[in-house]
Design brief:
Helix content: 10-25%
Radius of gyration: 22 Å
Structural class: alpha+beta
Oligomer: single chain
Strand content: 25-35%
Strand order of the largest sheet: 5-4-3-2-7-8
Largest sheet: 6 strands, antiparallel
Bound molecules: zinc ion
Length: 345
């Protein structure tokens, strides 16, 4: 067993999506009301720079809206609060092994033990790889941008078991912590990371691999987007169409040219931009074709998400067919090994 001193502490921003300005925090019989007064944090009757309370073992946080709790959640570890951008920034600080059960069940499509163990190793590797939000004063957010996390409320018995069974295990390649991604369904084969994010480094273990479960399942989608909506979404009033200029393995769109706007962008950037402006159910993946029909663009594609790394649909299927989590991981991250995680980043 790894000594407690060797655990990696992770700092997760929680409940930020609600931009809370009034919260109540309870732990170990203590009850505090936090609000913002003249831009400063007010705890009970006094203003103070920041606030910190350790769980006993849990901290209960309620976001108050118009005098009523809008959402209440329980967290392990220590909750810190300070004012940031006009809202109360809440950060949950806890050892990675205690954080992981609060994300694994939420991000895994399957509750099969081997699929959840694979998710646990990927989630731990993601944490080990480092802080995406260092400039904001924390490591991870609690949204899909990093990994969905709901504290102790997101945990399940199975997720806790999957984390315990893989304790300390991370994916490495060539002696370095691997760069990991996961995706809901790949549409028949995962995407090479270099096709989706061409500016990043090429990673031999993030190449396109076939995915039988997604090939068997019908993951086709289509959507029609009015040219006017596209123009608004990409902020190019003269946009008259989308032309795929460059594709990668398995039909992934690497680059597109926007007709009438002399602009190019990656397929992934187009998906993200349309997702933010028009909703995520429109351009669902980076594998698509596009056809102009009058004043509309008709997209047809398959899969969901960026398609890089561990395919959740494929992992669920492989687990059901008897694959171990190690087999699942070596399928989607070929050439990686499972190593003991380090205590620093
Ligand atoms: Zn994030
Ligand atoms: Zn798949």
């Amino acid at each position: 067993m790894v000594a407690e001193a060797a655990l990696l502490l992770v700092r997760v921003s929680v409940l930020g999506i609600f931009s809370p300005t009034v919260v109540t925090i309870e732990a170990g019989g203590q009850h505090h009301a936090l609000s913002i007064e003249n831009g400063a944090l007010k705890v009970d009757a006094a203003t103070q720079q920041n606030f910190r309370i350790a769980g006993d073992p849990l901290v209960t946080v309620a976001v108050i809206d118009k005098g009523r709790p809008r959402i209440t959640r329980k967290f392990r570890g220590t909750i810190e609060a300070r004012v940031s951008n006009g809202a109360i920034l809440l950060v949950d600080e806890l050892p990675d092994e205690e954080y992981l059960p609060g994300t694994v069940a939420l991000e895994s499509l399957s509750d099969h033990p081997e699929a959840q163990k694979a998710q646990a190793v990927v989630a731990r590797t993601f944490v080990q790889r480092g802080a995406r939000h260092a400039r904001e004063g924390f490591d991870l957010c609690d949204l899909t941008h990093c990994q969905t996390y709901r504290g102790a409320d997101g945990e399940t018995e199975k997720a806790r078991a999957a984390v315990a069974a893989t304790r300390g295990e991370v994916l490495s390649f060539d002696g370095k912590i691997a760069e990991v991604y996961f995706t809901a369904s790949c549409g028949g084969a995962t995407n090479d990371v270099a096709d989706v994010w061409p500016d990043g480094a090429r990673r031999p273990y993030l190449r396109s691999v076939p995915c039988e479960a997604c090939r068997r399942a019908d993951q086709k989608w289509e959507t029609t987007i009015a040219l006017a909506d596209l123009a608004r979404a990409i902020d190019q009033p003269n946009a008259r169409g989308v032309i795929i200029t460059d594709g990668g393995a398995g039909g992934v769109v690497r680059n597109v040219r926007i007709e009438g706007a002399a602009t190019t962008m990656t397929g992934e950037a187009l998906r993200m931009t349309i997702g933010r402006a028009l909703g995520w159910s429109r351009l669902r993946s980076d594998r698509f074709t596009v056809e102009k029909r009058g004043n509309d663009l008709h997209f047809r594609g398959s899969g969901a998400g960026h398609g890089v790394g561990l395919c959740e649909t494929g992992a669920a299927d492989l687990a059901k067919r008897g694959a171990s989590y190690r087999e699942i991981l070596s399928r989607y991250f070929p050439g990686t090994t499972i190593d003991a995680r380090r205590t620093g980043r």
